[in-house]
Amino acid sequence: MPTLYHTKASYSVPPPLKVGDRVALTATARKITLSELQAAIELLGSWGLVPVMAIP
Questions:
Q1: Does 51 score more than 80 pLDDT?
Q2: What's the alpha-carbon Rg for the chain, to the nearest Å?
Q3: Terminal CA-to-CA distance of the chain, rounded, Å?
Q4: Residues 6+ apart with CB under 8 A from 51
């Protein structure tokens, strides 16, 4: 029976985020409004991160 998990990491871990880093916000499951993202934008900003959104 095959295992459902990997015993060895087959991926690389990115470096930790630091102040000034850009963080992309995406909504993959449905259309979302800017007002729905506002809390996330404010939280990321309070951590010193820069939220980036792709608005079609």
A1: yes
A2: 16
A3: 45
A4: 22, 23, 25, 37, 40, 41, 44, 45
